[in-house]
Automatic annotation (TrEMBL):
It comes from Qipengyuania flava. Keywords: Signal. This is Uncharacterized protein. Residues 1-22 form the signal peptide.
Amino acid sequence: MRNTIYYIVGGSLASISIPALAQDAPMQDAAPEVVAESTAALSAEQQASYDGWPAEQQAQFDTWPGEVQTYYWTLTPERQSLFWRISDANKVTLAGLSAEQQAQAWTQIEGQAAAQAATAGTETDGM
């Protein structure tokens, strides 16, 4: 079971695109009342951050289930940036993992991001 989760998350996360924000279609299964309730429960600092986002980013955040929105605010700023770049389905999966599994998934995500940044840097340097 444990390895299956890693294969699902690892395989899905392997396709993240670090240079560009994900252009996934908004999730359709988020209940509006859950979204409104969790968005209304933001701290002053979170609300200020949310208000500074482009409308498209706010709209995408508003489609996430409440537990995904809550999980987002627990992340470091670096991980929040990476979180935007993974698919909404992977966000839901990641938010639902145990703390140990999340830590392992983040190790993979950050490793992939570093590898992609290094590859992009060497391609740019060669031009």
